[in-house]
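Weekly puzzle thread! Below is a chain. First person to post its structure in token form gets bragging rights.
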Amino acid sequence: MKRSEKAERILDILEELYPETPIPLDHNTPYQLLIAVLMSAQTTDKKVNQVTPELFKLGATPEAMSMLDVKQIQSIIREIGLAPTKARNIHRLSEIIVEKHGGEVPHTFTELELLPGVGHKTASVVMAQAFGISAFPVDTHIHRLASRWGLSTGKTVERTEADLKFIFPKDKWNKLHLQIIFFGREFCPARNHDLSKCQICSWTATKKRIAEEAKKR
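Winning reply:
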């Protein structure tokens, strides 16, 4: 089956399963989404949502956050992985947003990726979910599923992102990346997964891949 045919069928399945795609990270503004996505690296959305209420109570805006002490921020997010580094990045990027962007989160990839702690994936989420600009954020989970489903042979998330952008319509990207994440969490885990019984893997994965994964279970 051609990749384009796979993509069309996958779109239909995911749209039926997830017609609505609420953003998993709690936030009220683009700035708060930026901070939440930054913190989500190497930790769970659930854990981030547990610490952001207290953090945003004190630092709901870049101005308020920049007034906090780095140690105070670190104390609030201490249960998040890499808390010391993230606390420093949160404080400094808040200062930069105030100093260089008038307190508003920048609307371009270039400007976002210049902020401390903000990589391409984080910038993509903000561009897609906060500003509605077409982007295809690819994390390790989407990278893994794209490989399983035979949509990409990329060894890096950058290559996988390019492959997915090529085969899926641009107007689907913003919603689709969340649909794939939701499907992976609910039906397609990284380990102990029977590809032969999966609603998508069963017909997208090669027989060799299905056999290899079966040996790991």
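Puzzle host: Confirmed. Bonus trivia for everyone else. DSSP finds 13 helices and no strands in the chain.
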